[in-house]
Amino acid sequence: MSAAIRVENVSKRYRLGVINRRMLYQDLQSRWARWRGQEDPHSKVGEKLRGNGENFWALDGINFEIRAGEVIGLIGGNGAGKSTLLKILSRITSPTKGRVCLKGSVASLLEVGTGFHPELTGHENIFLNGTILGMRQSEIRRKFDQIVDFAEVEQFIDTPVKRYSSGMYVRLAFAVAAHLSPEILIIDEVLAVGDARFQEKCLGKMESIAGEGRTILFVSHNMGAIRALCSRGILLREGRVVMDGSIDETITAYIGDNFASASSYEAKERPASPHFERITATQEPAAQGTFSIGQPLVVTFETNPCGKKDLTVGLVIRNSQGVWVQHSSDEFAAAKDPLATVSRCIIPPHALGPGKYHLDALLAKRNEEAYEHLVNALSFEIAFDGAMAARTHAADWKGACGPGLLLWE
Amino acid sequence: MNDTATPDAPEDLSQWSKVITPQRGWLDVRWRDLWQYRDLIYMFVRRDFVGTYKQTVLGPLWFFLQPLFTTIVFTIVFGRIAKISTDSVPPPLFYLSGVVMWQYFADCLQKTSTTFTANADIFGKVYFPRLVLPISTVITNLITFAIQFSLFLGVLVFFKLQGAPVFPNFRMAILPLLLVMMAALGLGVGCLVSALTTRYRDLSVAVGFGVQLWMYGSTVVYPLSEIAPEWRWLLVLNPMVPIIEAFRFAFLGSGVVEIWQLAMGAGVCVLVLLGGIITFNHVEKTFSDTI
Ligand SMILES: Nc1ncnc2c1ncn2[C@@H]1O[C@H](COP(=O)(O)OP(=O)(O)OP(=O)(O)O)[C@@H](O)[C@H]1O
Ligand SMILES: [Mg+2]
Q1: Taking the complete model, does pTM exceed 0.80, yes or no?
Q2: Spelled out in words, what is the top-level CATH class assigned to the domain A3-10+63-257?
Q3: Which of residues 122-141 of A touch B (CB under 8 A)?
Q4: Closest CB to B50 among A98, A111, A120
Q5: pLDDT for B49-63, tens place per residue?
């Protein structure tokens, strides 16, 4: 397949600080003062030393090439420059240096519902939004029924969108975008909208778009979605490409990037609703951050129920691939005191394979909304120790659970 | 990685359908893109028209009331109190003709002048040729003009039936040309102002005031014949003067416009339009960084 996108040495400089916020009269005053040889009344102290403001390189020498039909996941931490790169590719802003070559029609979706007008009906907004995104009228007319179907808003299609619930609004907006059919599709973190069922539907739709052989460049912080969709990953850090390879390698590198071990959590603020006071991971003999795969690991949750009863503590343990290795709750305890404020979870040896993990904690009442949901409450690493560490290499074992979980005879 | 040090090496770029580079010339206006996005112009016209129509309680009635009340006020203030001549035309008809024409121009200017500030959120999220917006504004205003113009025609017929000395004539055919001139002038100045307001926010406050002043510099509330002949050339530098005079000459049969004045006005309009579009185009490519 031939190349669809080629990015050559692209850099983008932003000027930091307050720009373009000056008033015309201030500019005239400054000019008048300078002309008479006086000091500029509007110059800030020390401004002369720094010249014309500070520059900041959001992208710094980006190079890559994408072949037609590839689905690429672009990942990186906050401020890595992902959105900036997408904006350059979609011509919203121009690069400061470098060159981008594209082959085929491009549509980009950096936000759902751009240009929606609250007074117009769903019907009118489908046409407006579709046209803004680059569709022709005839194309929208052809796909209109599919779009309405996908959004599940048939009954409200002639109602002004200002009367829509925010979920319906987002569904409609995404439905329009999902029916774009460019050769190159650029998508920035827009899947994190709607309810879980709709998100799944969107992912499915994206998979089928990818299956049609379109080139897709996809940004998300949801590693599960990235892994499901993409075949190749590009990792950005501080405006540079630090990794360009298979999606698994890239995600692992990214999670390694962000990994700061924390084997305890302490509440910082104490709301009046039920919340976690403290969460700790401990092991005998005492360890910090890195635990042995061969010993039980105890996670202790201390909660403050604030007068509520029958609370449930849940946990999710995710590995460096973003896979949920464990999802459990204290409802599985053999016996449970409804007034207990401490729950203890014992993770047996080899329940988790060697690698890095994040633990999310959830405090809820059965079938009701969660009181507290802590993402990445704990982060820790599991490693071999003792005799096994000397004999094998952690990277040799690729299962999500440890190799010693199975019983061999 | 020094292999890209010569970006303009004789590499064949024709296999790519789009090449994005930092530089873009001042005169590099993407006309072809604009043509490709013609559907969007239509959609924006629809949006703006339906949007305003639905938002105001009075709906389209508002479009009648505005020129009507302005005309009544002008008739009282400039006709009755200041007693400014109206070239033997019934004062309401005289002022209404000026108001309807002026309103189209003023709307074009004022609405296009907020293009960047009013659409900052869209501009940061999606690409389309930015000129689509001011162009669609000018077209939307044409609908408003049509409504107000029909009001003017109604009043004209009413006065004619009463036997007023007004003489509509074949020169009415020039109306489309006058509209194009006004659209060009309004669009040009509006684009210029909207480009400048991205740099100087306080300019947007001055626009309303400037339009007001400009109206008194145009022959809306007085006829050109009231101006001493040796000063007329100065006033005629303002294209709105020959435009309004020509309109009155065609529909009411009064006015002192000459062909060369209209031609000069058209020249000024074209220059202003080009200047506006070029400035707009220049600001457009860096604007989204500065929101
Ligand atoms: N218009 C702007 N002016 C100045 N700095 C900007 C501008 N837009 C972005 N930046 C800076 O550029 C850097 C990269 O921003 P960008 O939006 O590309 O990050 P990102 O990778 O998309 O992050 P996130 O995951 O949070 O969306 C950030 O440090 C941001 O502050
Ligand atoms: Mg972003």
Answers
A1: no
A2: alpha beta
A3: 124, 127-128, 131-134, 136-137
A4: A120
A5: 887 777 666 667 878
